[in-house]
UniProtKB/TrEMBL annotation:
Gene coding for it: gloB_1
InterPro entries for this protein: Metallo-B-lactamas (IPR001279), NDM-1-like (IPR050855), RibonucZ/Hydroxyglut_hydro (IPR036866), SoxH-rel_PQQ_1 (IPR030811)
Residues of the Metallo-beta-lactamase domain: 66-246
CDD domains: metallo-hydrolase-like_MBL-fold
Family indicated by similarity: Belongs to the metallo-beta-lactamase superfamily. Class-B beta-lactamase family.
Stretches of the chain forming a coiled coil according to its record: none
Sample GO molecular function, one term: hydrolase activity
Taxonomic classification: Bacteria, Pseudomonadati, Pseudomonadota, Alphaproteobacteria, Hyphomicrobiales
Name under which the protein is recorded: Hydroxyacylglutathione hydrolase
Stretch forming the signal peptide: 1-32
Keyword annotations from UniProtKB, A to Z: Hydrolase, Signal
Keyword Oxidoreductase: no
Pfam family, one: Lactamase_B
Amino acid sequence: MSAETTTLTRRAGLALGLCAAASPWLPGFASAAPLAYTLAPIEIAPRVWTIYGAPEPITRANGGAIANITILDTGDGAVLIDAGPSHRYGTALKALAERLTGKPVVRVYLTHLHADHVLGATAFEAGTVSGGPALRGDLKRAGTDLTNGMYRVAGDWMRGTGVPEPGRVAEGGVETIGERRFRILPLAGHTREDLCLFEERSGLLFPGDLVFLDRAATTPDADPERWRGALTTLAEIDHSLLIPGHGPVEAGRRGIDQTRRWLDTVEARIGEGFARGLDVTELMEAPLPDWTDGLAVARYEFARSVMHLLPGLERRDLPRLAPA
């Protein structure tokens, strides 16, 4: 959603604008007032629930609720991994977490800057919201553009949403909350700062949007080489379940391998097309391998990736014209 420089550039704005294209209406997300998110938690482990995001782009129909959000019960209170796309979502999430656990929310970990994960944090007390060292500064610089872009795409779902101000900094190391031990791993690649959490007692791995499963990965702020390095780190963690930022919860490393394969495919297709002299429109229409047929929104995300990644190739390989 945000650009590499944490401003909403013209190209990134166009990419976000694509989200407003018409798509099939998603049951459970009413478009008529009053708007209300239907949160359907699935228990993935004892006292741990995931709310699956819609495998779609952000639209007015789904209110931006496309990311996975997880609630963990601890002896000290509820812990959330990410907060959803809007204040309205965050309010519903807070009520759900308190109902499921019978306790207040004591921590909300934000994995990275993107709107579908962080803007719901405005519904929580700042002192419970925790993000990586760079997140607060990134939100101050880019938060208004991020929020405005979501208002344009999702409309009235965003009513009351402002820019979150995390009150806690999630440094690398271990944070103990109740009986749970969260190992915090500062990584990068999907964005310039991606927070991964590993709950050591249950073996649950939360890589945020470093891992997508059965949905094409998004690349608005991607550094593919750093992303591959992060995936290598994640693959070395002996986990019981992996909860991706988008897609089904599974044991094993299928999501890690699939995300790497998508990055390799996208870079190869864009690089080959650029070398052949294809323009942006021609590149967007380039064929994708058959294996991507099983990924939600693959064609859509490939088109966005052309806009995100092609400028880097142009800057690197096209000659600069001398001033007249």
